[in-house]
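Hey,
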Amino acid sequence: MLSISVEEFLLWKKKQLSKGGDHQSFAVLLDCIGGISNSELYLICINPEGRLQLKQDLDFLESIWNEHLIKSCPIQYLCGISFWRDLKLKVSNKVLIPRPETELIIDIVCSLFKKKSEKLFFAELGTGSGAISIALALSYPFSKGVATDIDQDALELATKNYINSSKQSNLKFYCGNWWSPLESFKGKLDLAISNPPYIPKDTYEKLPKEVKNFEPKVALLGGKDGLKHIKEIIQKAPLFLKDKGWLILENHFDQGEKVKELLIKNKFTSIEIVKDLSGIGRFTIGRYK
């Protein structure tokens, strides 16, 4: 650990933020690489005396921050860590950086299944870093979950995240495309969840470079209209869900009504478009029969 004065650190911090970037990304850098948590950062800002212990020197931290600013590389990839709900997850450019708005999926599940003692059997399709499945496995410790991903590297990362986040053994990972690894679970699921690639092709071409140049295309692009994967998931869901089983999908801000129509067409009921904190119809949910 390196010891520096709080005064020196705060001057350096001010200089770095004057170059650009946002406070949230800078906080991720300080926590993951520098070893200074948000709470510690808050305390030294209101009491700028004494000394501070750093895991890495200021020059090294500055080099990472400069790379983030110059190349527009997401700070989560440079640090190898992303914070999501109360999880600290390993990430790489093989997986999408889990977004704050996706955290609401867990709240939706908790509103449908209110008892933490529920013995659910759930599946997540396209797990990426494992964020959603791990959060559910922790929230419902008596439940069992399965999570799929088409990319073996992503699954290895998700598995590490689960081991690091939990001492439980109620979540298993399977490699394959959407439902294909789950043939033995037909008709057994209480709940299926997916945050699939849903960005339409034209929209994908206009994405900010920090997304388009670094995050995996396979996790973002949903075909010409963005609904390619959503259609496949919905069409096959009745084979895997129990009667009254729920399907929860994240979709693009303008796809809610189209996803609702697809659910109706495939005999889902209790369909609802759920808005995120910005008032956008971010999720579409339905119950099979």
